[in-house]
Amino acid sequence: MKKLTTFLVLGAGCLFLASCDNEESASKEPTVTYRKMTDAISVVLRSDRTAYTKNIVARLKKEGVMPSEHWKDEKQKTLLPAQMFRAGQEIAMSRDPGFFYQLKSIWPINPKNLPNEFEKAGFEKVAESGGAENFYGQEEIDGQKYFVAIYPDVAVSPACVDCHNEHKDSPRKDFKMDEVMGGIVIRVPME
Ligand code: HEC
After folding, report:
1. 85 Cα to the center of ligand 1, angstroms
2. Cα 105 to the chain's mean position, in Å?
């Protein structure tokens, strides 16, 4: 009888907490698709990027502090939006978040930001759609499959256009406001 009571109490506790550690409950754990995951990450990355450019860079400019590649060595300078993005990325990557991301373009100032062949086709599609569409695909590298998503990086401020068009290393000098200048690639290793 005592055994039966213990069994019933444990059973009721299980039902009540709905957290019994068995395989059945683990398989019912809610999951999100790769696309939902990368879509959500991209919203945060792009919002932070826009907030930095529109609020901080624009405000500092009025006070005579300009964005510069050499912000570390020069006085009255702040990080370029791309450097701000990379500063966050480096911290994120050091925490091993289970995915990779990078800001790239088919017209890069820094050749290190060129997409690979697979990504290039995606960047072209995103640019052709005027930034209305994202690109999703799967790529295998060294036996590892990746879910790859590309989101447009758009000229949200005249500062984006002016700096890129005037930069000596920019292969394009005709960017316009609201145009796609590049994109954020998010890569998730698939199980
Ligand atoms: C003051 C100059 C400046 C401003 C403002 C600026 N950029 Fe850049 N951007 C650069 C430089 C320089 C790089 C290369 C940085 C690196 O990777 O070393 C770069 C990198 C990029 C890249 C990666 C590909 C590449 O060109 O190397 C994209 C995409 C990009 N910027 C888009 C934008 C957008 C969109 C804005 C506005 C939100 C913006 N940039 C604002 C100078 C600027």
Report:
1. 10
2. 14
Whether 65 is in the pocket of ligand 1, judged by its Cβ within 6 Å, is: no
Q: Which residue type sits at 68? A: S
Q: Enumerate residues 6+ apart whose C-beta is below 8 A from 147.
A: 34, 35, 38, 136, 138, 187, 188, 190
List the one residue out of 183, 174, 133 whose CA is nearest residue 153. 183
Distances (CA, A) of 189 to 88, 99, 142, 159, 180: 21, 7, 12, 35, 27
**Nearest CA to 85 among 117, 46, 115, 111?**
46
Return d(Cα 67, Cα 52) in angstroms, integer: 11
Distance (Å) from CA 129 to ligand 1 centroid = 21
Contact 63, 69 (CB under 8 A): no
- pLDDT tens profile 148-183: 999 999 998 888 999 999 999 999 999 999 999 999
CB 46 within 8 A of CB 70: no
Ligand 1 atom closest to Cα of residue 156: 38
Pocket flag, ligand 1, residue 156 (CB < 6 Å) = yes
Residue nearest to atom 37 of ligand 1 (CA): 160
User: What pLDDT shows up at residue 191?
Assistant: 84
Residue (of 164, 157, 177) closest to 54 by Cα position: 157
